[in-house]
Amino acid sequence: MRKFALLSVLILMFVVQGASAQDSTAAFSCPQTGGTLIVQGEGDPPSLSGLYANDGNSLAVTTFMDEPLVLGGENWGDKIEPALAESWDISADGLTYTFHLRQGVKWSDGQPFTADDVLFTFQAVLEDDNTIDWKNNLIQDGKPLTFKVVDDNTFQVILTSVNPAILNNLSIPIVPKHAFTSTSVKDAPYNTNPITTGPFKFVKWETGQDVQLEANKDYWGGAPCLDRIVVRFISGVDNVANALQAGEVDFARIDGADLTPFQNNPDFTLTQTPRDLMRLVGFNTKSKTVGDPAVRRALITGLDRQAIIDTAAAGNGTIPDSVFNKSSSAYQAGLNTQYPYDPDQAKKLLADAGWKDSDGNGFLDKDGQELTLKLVYSGSFALMGSIAPIVYDNWKALGVNITLNPLDDATANTDIYDNTSTDKPYDAFLSGWGLFGTDPSHYRTFYADDTSYLAYNNPDVTALFDQGDKETDPAKRTAIYQQVDKLLWQDLPIIPIFQPIGVYVYTSKLNLDAAEINGTFLTGLKYPGRAYFTQAQ
Amino acid sequence: MSSVNIVPLTKPRSQRGVIWRQFRRHKLAVASAIVLILLAFVSVFAEQIAPHDPNAINSSYSHGKPQPPTAEYPLGTDNFGRDYLARTMVGMRLSLIVGVTAVAFQLVIGISIGALAGYFGGWIDNLLMRITDIFLSVPAFLLLLIMAGILGGGLLSLIVAIGALNWMTVARLVRADILSLKEREFVVAGRSIGVPAWRMIVVYLLPNAAASIIVSATLAVPSAILTESALSFLGLGVPPPNASLGNMLGEAQQWIRTSWWIWIVPGVAISMIVLAFNFVGDGLRDALDPQLRD
Question: For residue A389, what is the nearest residue in chain B, using CA coordinates?
């Protein structure tokens, strides 16, 4: 018996190991199938194309439909894992990556997925006219990476120098070549009618109302348990809470509503998990008033960030002590000295920087320039609307002539998000960012490029980012980025306000254990295909 | 021999006196007028009267949820802990300012166009009235949304936008009045002795059209106030954190279930102001009626 037991244990070990050597996206057997899951979304996305999905509204939909070669890059979680690429080999010199693509994967229109699609996607990303955010991911030393289609299922990426973060960079959603007439993807019909490989596929977009998706029965990871997912647009925390109770929504993330109806309520399940996001005030570092880091240090000292967490997020947040999100590998707690909320100290810092109220009008000025601060933000983003008045109140009390300017979506995009000029029409903006994955080199796009929203150009920081791109020793690399963190924490081109803790509320009829609630995915779910209703719907 | 003194039986009645007496008969109008005067007073002195700063955040008191009325905050607070009473006062001031100035602006345009059209007639009348028709056929609110989007938020653009889209009724009324007055003897006489057109209009004709102008102005104010509230509700009115009855209602949407004062207070305030102006307008119309019929 013992021998048999030992033998079976050994066999079991092999079997288990075999299963994990294969990636964890092996088919999941659904205890129950069917049903429509209604999840909450904030509002209409600007587009449904994975290539342009870099904002909350878009990701709320595309994360269910799109897939990159590997997970672990921006918007795709915090771990490098195989997705459309089953495995990959790295050459001895570290310059050639050979991706073995998953076989038998089909697009949602039935066409086969091949390496040509990967090549097409990367070419489209590199094209300037497409203005895709990840263009710089595919550029090394000023030149685009070299790509090679070896055969239908093998794709090679050739670097000019070793880049430890290249897998994160390549984690971009793949789009089908046959869905486009050319590599000009900016205004393609694809953007309102996407064709994808993921567990769910696009059905219909009712603008202003919802986006409807249905299960991709041929999904390589196994047919999803659910029949359909509907992303319903409901904005405003109390509206979401109401919708959950009324059964109009099955799964939602609530940032700040009254949770008492859901606590100790058998009809609902509540899960809290930190989200890989940062809410921040970003500065136009070329501004006449806030261009001085001393002023920015005064402003962070005069901002009651805990009050913002309490009011705008019902206490579900943590005050950051770094410019990096916690999930970044370079983040180290306690590395930087925190700026505690101290309005008197803030006033002193402003006075030390030369700002006094010389004309008695209640606002500080210096050399004839009044300390004006034009704060812009996206008016349709309810969270920003609840943060703005507090920022206004705190900074007005310091003597800053602050004005709030909520912008409509189109203006927010042209003025803030898509604005590549160094001449910004604002002094500061309220926004958030995140889902960058673990590699800190991503922050380069904000801090080493003065056409980003921060218009920030600090040669010391840029040099450090350059070093980090090349350093292969992980310990040394982390040290380099920690240097960046220290410098930026002093210079404060952004004031990190808080990192939210997501509270996910969903009906108890839904089982999400295998789907994995994960705050590094915008949708909150890592494997949406594994969500199922415990009773037939 | 005795002399007889002729003494008038009653005091001579002035026109203003007649109007005032007629107005007094309309009890609701009088009450509303008093309410409006009180409101105006509160609005002007809002900062002095209000116990708290309308924009002062008190998040340690509110914890992100609106707080109910207490002795210290008679109308409660919003979710930022801002005193609702103070915000309502400031909001009412804004409504009154926008209402009155938008209407003033609208009167300037409307009277000018109506007077010119009525007095000169001919192709000028045709042209101006066709322009008026065009403006009337445009869905005003949609145009307002577009204008508010283009001009950006802010008090001035709000006033200009509302005024620029609501002058048509006044124009038509004034034109109608002037057309009917134009054939009177004093006008014909004035023309024949060469009184210049502008003088005829400003000094002789418009004062006689005053009655309908006053009434339509009084009734236009609540309409302007409601328009401003609607725009603010949609987020196109005055920028935050300034309080406006409309944007208070907009923010109230998500707290309707839990905090009744959040939406009742601005709602009642708007209704009160609008009703008051409507009643006063009614009363004025009744009081000025004989003048109108003349």
Answer: B241
